[in-house]
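Quiz preparation item.
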């Protein structure tokens, strides 16, 4: 199962759940991770690649980069 959620400030949170039945018992493994604008999407499922490419508009990419630079600047001052 694959779920994702686009976050308002740019990133996309992905949740991948794998279910396997072993001897009548269902075992599940869930992985949750976040992709940020500009991340390499190689190896991501096609659905996730399409969502990221649609969500990460040039404007959203620029806003994300500005926020990253602002945070880095604040950290260097402290």
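Solution:
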């Amino acid at each position: 199962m694959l779920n994702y959620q686009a976050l308002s400030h740019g990133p996309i949170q992905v949740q991948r759940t794998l279910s396997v039945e072993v001897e009548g018992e269902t075992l599940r493994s869930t992985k949750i991770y976040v992709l940020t604008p500009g991340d390499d999407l190689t190896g991501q499922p096609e659905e996730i690649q399409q969502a990221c490419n649609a969500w990460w508009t040039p404007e959203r990419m620029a806003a994300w980069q500005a926020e990253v630079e602002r945070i880095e600047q604040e950290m260097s001052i402290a």
